[in-house]
Write a structure and sequence with these properties.
Two copies of one chain form a homodimer.
Chain A lengths: L1 H35 L8 E2 L5 E2 L2 E7 L8 E7 L4 E2 L2 E2 L4 E14 L5 E4 L3 E4 L5 E5 L5 E7 L8 E2 L5 H4 L4
Antiparallel strand pairs in A: 1-3, 2-5, 3-4, 4-11, 6-12, 7-8, 7-9, 7-10, 7-11
């Protein structure tokens, strides 16, 4: 009698364990899909080596026109990737939607940027931005008043400049 | 001998089932925390009933000034919530970061907006935007050329207007 009870218990537990494992696997897959779908925008086109160090992908959201005078886009910087130094004649607003990165205005220390941060760079001021060494960066940019111009590209950010973050 | 084997098997399976359940519970909690942390920006302040139907929360990202002439913010609309009809003297750009919602330009059909969508509303055109009935909406807005003005609020969107979505 005891033996039969144990057999039934064993079978019940095997069934339970299998059910839990199947549920757990299904849940893991849902989580993996959710992670894959996390990015808000498509990856976009890789930025040219003449303007970027490492891999940075640009996805345009709003093209320039004479109604809004505004350019908006999203850049995905892979870890360690950054823009060259550059200037915007009417300034730029950065909005971080995921990950972690760096921003530097010429002559000032590097500032860390994280999800939810908003960073402004004034008109005609040299700056660069990119991912931190160990994290990618999802960064929207807004260039206002484009009737004054959009961007003037300058020299690359050297490893020495990039690694100066304290 | 068989009885002993069954007993050992039962105990092993009990331990396994418990371990899987504990892991599963931990995983569920991590997932719940991840969901809670998903929003990019803080919830912000509830918009006034004079301008919104239902609950809409505004979080300012960029305040108006004479350098950028741009106002940026994020609105979280709860399901069914929407703005009144309104106009922007220099137009508005909407960027959807999560959820699902509606946007309508006066005289045109309601358009559905989803994560990753960009919607433009031209200067001085009457429009409204909000969540769909069954989903919240996380929506960034950009108001350019604010030297021309920011917003002129009008009448509420009636239930009949809101429910006209096909």
């Amino acid at each position: 009698m005891k033996k039969t009870r144990d057999n039934i218990a064993t079978k019940l537990l095997l069934t339970l364990a299998a059910a839990v494992l199947i549920t757990f696997q299904g849940f893991s897959q849902t989580k993996a899909n959710a992670d894959a779908e996390k990015a808000i925008f498509p990856k976009g086109e890789q930025g040219p080596a003449s303007n970027f160090t490492g891999k940075a992908f640009n996805y345009g959201l709003v093209a320039n026109d004479s109604t809004y005078n505004t350019v908006v886009g999203n850049v995905l910087f892979e870890p360690g990737a950054r823009s060259n130094w550059h200037r915007h004649p009417a300034g730029q607003i950065l909005i971080i939607t995921a990950g972690e990165g760096y921003h530097q205005i010429k002559g000032k220390p590097i500032e860390k940027m994280r999800k939810g941060d908003v960073v402004k760079c004034p008109p005609n001021v040299e700056h660069w931005h990119g991912a931190s060494p160990d994290s990618s960066l999802h960064q929207m940019y807004i260039i206002p008043n484009t009737e004054k111009g959009i961007v003037e590209w300058l020299q690359p950010v050297t490893d020495k400049e990039y690694n100066a973050f304290k």
